[in-house]
Amino acid sequence: MTSEEARRVLAEGDLLVSQADVVAAIARIADEMTAELKDSNPVLICCMNGGLVFAGQLLTRLVFPLQVDYVHATRYGHEINGVALDWKVRPQVDLRGRTVVLLDDILDEGVTLAAIAEYCTQQGAAKVMMAALVEKLHLRKVTPGMTADFTGIEVGDRFLFGYGLDYKGYWRNAPGIYALKGH
């Protein structure tokens, strides 16, 4: 994709959630997480690359003891359709007996998050929770009724980009949540 093509994608995209509304959603998640986790010494794991923007803005709002790690497992690469899970980096912090919170940009079908959660459980995590900036509302979840423990924004079933979500590797930095034109 050329930079000109990428600019066209943003210009033609539908802004679904403004930057101000995303910031407010992250603040709300921080309040909810603080109320629930402030005394639990959790490990927060950023799911790369999509969770980077969300995690970065969330972490400074969580003023209680916690550890941070990251994982990089993907089904998409720079494509718009998922394939088999590709593990690039696994968590390095000892998860045994800990509450783990996975931080990701989106809960779509949940295949990647479910696999990462299962890995954390196998590593001895006492409890695994999920925090997603965006949750897509549809019935194709890997486990029927699957939801994140902390959700910022719920949207319809469209192809999204911005605030960590990408389109073919571009626009994770877009200042809001956009839907791809025609999708």
Overview of the structural elements:
The chain has 183 residues and is an alpha/beta fold. It has one domain (3-74, 81-179): Rossmann fold (3-Layer(aba) Sandwich), CATH 3.40.50.2020. It contains four helices and nine strands. The chain has helices spanning 3-12, 19-37, 51-59, 111-122, and strands spanning 14-18, 43-48, 67-74, 86-89, 99-107, 127-136, 150-155, 160-161, 176-179. The strands form two sheets. A six-stranded mixed sheet has the order 4-3-2-5-6-7. Strands 1-9-8 form a three-stranded antiparallel sheet. Helix 2 packs across helix 3 (51-59). The longest helix is centred in the N-terminal third of the chain and has 19 residues, at 19-37. It is globular.
Helix-strand string: HEHEHEEEHEEEE
**What is the general shape?**
globular
Strand order of the largest sheet: 4-3-2-5-6-7
What is the alpha-carbon Rg in Å?
Answer: 16 Å
Note the total helix count.
Answer: 4
Tally of separate domains? 1
DSSP strand count: 9
N- to C-terminal separation? 18 Å
Low-confidence stretches: none
CATH topology: Rossmann fold
Structural class determined from secondary elements: alpha/beta
Specify the CATH class: Alpha Beta
The average pLDDT is 92
CATH architecture: 3-Layer(aba) Sandwich
Helix content: 25-40%
Note the beta-strand portion: 25-35%
Q: Tell me about the biggest sheet?
A: 6 strands, mixed
In short:
With 183 residues, the chain is an alpha/beta fold. The protein contains 4 helices and 9 strands; from the N terminus they run H-E-H-E-H-E-E-E-H-E-E-E-E.
